[in-house]
């Protein structure tokens, strides 16, 4: 059965030309003149793909998008406009558009986009069926990332919003904040779940080897190339390719990555012909790429191609309330691997963990708990089983004669909280109001600081 496509535009000439083009490519095409007629056709036809103009009188393309997604969230909607801006593109993608085409576009670009959208639709339907079958059999999909802090939930909400689209996503944050976890979440919530999830750390490989890993190479293209090798971009076709630490790539590699994003094709090392690829790209960096562009360390055109949707992950020190949740999740996972019951944290151990800044973020927390589990013979992890830098953290004075004389952020916070509490005559409820935090948060801070 051919894929059904609904065309919506207020210009008859465009409808006629697109109808002829897509019919020749084997699609079952329906046309609606204007947005209002389009809404009626969406309800009556339930098309597999919707292709709509943005600027139309009465009912515009974003309203068409809302109606199509309200009827069936799995229906990909491609929007097209002659007045495209980065802001309008981001608005459309955030609203759930599958793709955003700028007029005038090439016929082959349009056909390829519609074909990918149709495949996306098929994969989404199959993915839904697979999840239902897993549920029927008592299975479950991968557990969501752990955390309830506001900044973390906002990052996950944006990741889940953009996941069903095919847009490139840039995940930013310090090392160890969980960038690959979020990249996998985007893959698992997308229509590409049935395809592979491949990843590479751009900073872990020298330039020559990275180029071969990304794009593949032909036999004899360099010393040691004894046979053709498929690159990771080609291997990730139909799935998601995660490029970690993309800020570490060289200018030469950046030029080739730009070609992938612009033309959806690669040229293997030693080859003369381009190879088309269909992998969704999720990139990550712990660098400030905008600053790198200003300093000339990163290509601006590549940055703007990557920066359509940016998901920023907060450091662990800015989501301390998630530490107990993360610790519990890690301890349960460790117990499952050992086939044993989970160990618990002594109050002093948890207090030490809450007071520590975790420069290595979630990855450091997980490693510290793995060490503590190994060193703990009983069921309760004491503070002494944690790394010394965590368990023996000393309070820093607000002013010091030793360099550096600058106070730590935690010392400033502790001094300010104590000062507010004293000004409010020890009334914790009023102090919490002044500080702009919940009373429960204030109690946890005071316990961590050892303040009565």
From TrEMBL:
Pfam families from the UniProt entry: AAA_lid_14, HTH_8, Response_reg, Sigma54_activat
The protein, known as: Sigma-54 factor interaction domain-containing protein
Keywords on record: Activator, ATP-binding, Cytoplasm, DNA-binding, Nucleotide-binding, Phosphoprotein, Transcription, Transcription regulation, Two-component regulatory system
InterPro entries xrefs: AAA+_ATPase, AAA_lid_NorR, CheY-like_superfamily, Homeodomain-like_sf, HTH_Fis, P-loop_NTPase, Sig_transdc_resp-reg_receiver, Sigma_54_int
Residues carrying 4-aspartylphosphate: 53
Coiled-coil stretches noted in the UniProt entry, renumbered to this chain: none
Superkingdom of origin organism: Bacteria
């Amino acid at each position: 059965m051919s894929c059904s496509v609904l065309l919506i535009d207020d210009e008859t000439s465009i409808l006629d030309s697109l109808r002829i083009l897509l019919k020749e490519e084997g699609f079952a095409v329906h046309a609606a003149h204007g947005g209002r007629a389009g809404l009626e056709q969406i309800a009556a036809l339930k098309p597999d793909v919707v292709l709509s103009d943005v600027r139309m009188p009465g009912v515009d393309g974003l309203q068409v998008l809302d109606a199509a997604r309200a009827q069936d969230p799995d229906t990909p909607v491609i929007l097209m406009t002659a007045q495209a801006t980065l802001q309008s593109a981001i608005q459309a993608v955030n609203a759930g558009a599958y793709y955003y085409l700028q007029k005038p576009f090439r016929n082959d670009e349009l056909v390829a986009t519609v074909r990918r959208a149709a495949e996306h639709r098929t994969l989404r339907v199959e993915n839904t069926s697979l999840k239902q079958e897993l549920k029927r059999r008592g299975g479950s999909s991968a557990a969501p990332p752990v955390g309830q802090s506001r900044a973390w939930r906002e990052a996950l909400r944006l990741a889940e919003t953009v996941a069903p689209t095919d847009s490139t996503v840039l995940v930013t944050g310090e090392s160890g904040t969980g960038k690959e976890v979020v990249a996998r979440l985007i893959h698992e919530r997308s229509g590409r779940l049935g395809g592979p999830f491949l990843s590479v750390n751009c900073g872990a490989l020298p330039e020559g080897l990275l180029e071969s890993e990304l794009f593949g190479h032909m036999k004899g293209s360099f010393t040691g190339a004894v046979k053709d090798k498929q690159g990771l971009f080609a291997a990730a076709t139909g799935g998601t390719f995660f490029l970690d630490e993309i800020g570490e790539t060289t200018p030469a590699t950046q030029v080739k990555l730009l070609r992938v994003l612009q033309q959806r094709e690669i040229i293997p090392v030693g080859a003369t012909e381009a190879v088309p690829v269909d992998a969704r790209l999720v990139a990550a960096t712990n660098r400030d790429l905008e600053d790198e562009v200003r300093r000339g360390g990163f290509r601006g055109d590549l940055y703007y191609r990557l920066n359509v949707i940016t998901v920023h992950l907060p450091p662990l020190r800015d989501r301390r309330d998630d530490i107990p949740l993360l610790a519990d999740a890690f301890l349960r996972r460790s117990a499952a691997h050992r086939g044993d019951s989970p160990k618990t944290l002594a109050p002093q151990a948890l207090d030490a963990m809450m007071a520590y800044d975790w420069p290595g973020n979630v990855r450091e927390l997980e490693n510290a708990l793995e060490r503590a589990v190994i060193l703990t013979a009983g069921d309760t992890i004491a503070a002494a089983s944690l790394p010394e830098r965590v368990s023996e953290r000393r309070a820093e004075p607000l002013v010091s004669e030793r360099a550096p004389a600058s106070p730590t952020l935690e010392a400033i916070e502790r001094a300010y909280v104590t000062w507010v509490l004293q000004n409010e005559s020890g009334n914790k409820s009023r102090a919490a109001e002044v500080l702009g935090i919940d009373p429960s948060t204030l109690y946890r801070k005071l316990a961590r600081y050892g303040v009565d």
